[in-house]
Amino acid sequence: MAALKYSRQRESIKEFLRSRTDHPTADTVYENLRQIYPNISLGTVYRNLSLLSDIGEIRKLTNFGSADRYDGRVAPHSHFMCTRCNRVIDMQSDSLNGILEQAAAEFIHGKVFDVDASFYGICKECLEKEEKQS
Q1: 61 and which of 50, 69, 110, 122 could share a cystine (Cβ 3.0–4.6 Å)?
Q2: What pLDDT does 2 receive?
Q3: How far apart are CA 131 and CA 30, in angstroms?
């Protein structure tokens, strides 16, 4: 693959995502980047998100609601989505972290290099709201 030409906008998108833990949509990325680059187009944001995802610089989360989400953290990890508020949260668990290693060791039909586990439920904040309302 040929070397990728440097782009300030692309680097800004990547840094924006790495500074966040809320897994924003492309529209959120676009609205925030417009503050730095007023002339940036939504198409430019989408193209750069796609490219960064394709080359492994960010992760594209496609199974959380209607809009794709983006994650600047590319190390293998799982996600939790609240079915009430649609918030996406990184999950940290020793047992989840061991899934990749175990699968890689046991799988004989190829090489496992990543895992994408998604969990759905109700987040702590939504549970607390429900408790207060009842």
Answers
A1: 69
A2: 59
A3: 36
